Every structure is written in structure tokens, then in C-alpha cells.
Amino acid sequence: MNTFQLTCFVTVSQTLNFARAAEELNITQPAVTHQIHSLESELDTKLFRRTTRTVELTTDGFLFLDDAKKMLAISDRAKARLINHEQHDEQIFSIGSYNYAALLLLPDILRSMRADYPNIHPRLQIVPPSISNRLLDEDQIDVFLGFQDIVNPKFNGVYKELQKVPILCICLKDHPLAKQKSVHINDLRQEILLLESPFIGPSNLSELRSSILKERTASDFRICDSPEAAAILVKAGYGIAIQTGLSIPTDDSLTCIPVEGLPMLSVGAYYKTLKGNPMLKRFLELLKQQLCKK
Question: Which of 1, 101, 233, 240 has its CA 20 to 30 A from that of 120?
Fold first, then answer.
């Protein structure tokens, strides 16, 4: 099945006349007939009922007509997109991140990037750390945002540190812990904990979770798919969350308290090289500036 067959079918369905359809398509009538017969053979059904005087759609032809129009519309959009891409020399810039929170840093950065590179087309992706190195190696993403030890150590590229962030306890402002300037691991042993999946995030955070959860039952914690999900459950009173300073929720009802005795976490960007890539270099400069404001 191809778009020429579909075009012939739609045109005949509109004119209900093979000769007139051929005239509109600027081809011969036998060519139109051949395309319709080929399409009918592929679909294993009759699309038109023909007599010496009339042409009309069969029931199957009527049902197929909407699908044919949709397929042609998709084809037209795809062609237009590629033509537009060539005309404007669109520059794809793909940014991967291990979670949504890091992407929230980007609006101002991307606004500045558009001023510097008017034809830039950013693509934002949530990428599991386990495949980030492959996507970087295969040039499917230009840069991956995350923590220093989150990407496969076999990655043959560059890690550039942009900032260090603390590990925080997130709780409601009326929670007893909210009055403290910092919390210790022992302060958390009686709390219901809301934690991100152990398969994502830096190893320091995973070690902290393991330490806190030692000798505790499954009813003492909840695993959340993202920092945002954990913050929502904190706000609803289901417990407290342990998160990094990169994922601080912007909610007046919540407070963030540093966890004592833990090292700061290195946040940065993974990429293959800056050589010949001024767009990536500018992005990293803007990202570092944005992180310094936080």
C-alpha cells in the first residue's frame, strides 16, 4: 500500500468517475484502474461497485475511506515537516535527565538559547540512567543531566560538575521536625518515609535509604516513582520524604531540612565532547548560572 494508491482511491471516491479522477490526477484512466485493483488485491476486498454507467463505494470502501484520508494527511504533515526543517535548517538539541525535577531548571535557559540559536529545537527526555550512556554514545541525546555516579562507569565521555547539593528531609511545616535546623538519621527512625525507587538517584542517597530502612518493616516506607510524587504524598500527610537539593518542591506548606553528616552530592552534565559543539558549550554555561541562583 502506498500514498499514490490511496490518492487514486480518495479521488475516485470523490468524483465517482474513473475518467474524471484520471484527469484530476493528470494520469491515464488505465493507470487509475490499475492502482485501485492493486489496492483491492492487497486489502482483499472490493472498494467500488462498477457498472457501465455508475461507480459507487462498497460498504468496505466507505469504511476504508476515512482511514485512507488520515494516512494521506499524516503523509502530507510528514513531508511538510521535513521541507520546513530543510528550509529553516532546524538544529535539534536533545537533553536527557533522570527525572522531571532537573528539567524544571530549563525554561529560562532554553529561552536564552533560542535568542542565541533561533533555529534550535530542544527535545526533552526522561532517560533511565541505565541506558543514558548508550544514548550519549549513539548521539541520540546531546547531554544527560544527573548525579556524578548515576551513569554507567564504562561511559567514554565527560562528566562536568555544575553544583553540589545536600540531601534533605521534606516534611510539612507543622511537623515536629520542621522546627529543627537539621535532622540526624536517628530522627527519622520513627517516621513513615517516602522514598524514590532505589534504582534511580545517586549511590549516597541509596546508602542512606538502606541505613534508615535497616530492621524496619515494609509498612514503614513507601516507594515513589518521582520526587514530585513523594512531595504530593508529604503534603497529604502520608509521611516525610528524603530527597536531594536538586528536587526541592516549591510549596509553601512544605519545608526542607538538611540531613546531618552526609556528603554533598555532585550534580552535573554528561556529554561526549565540546569540540565543534558551541551550542552544548553555551547550554552548560547557562545551566551553571541557573544552578548558582538556586
Answer: 101
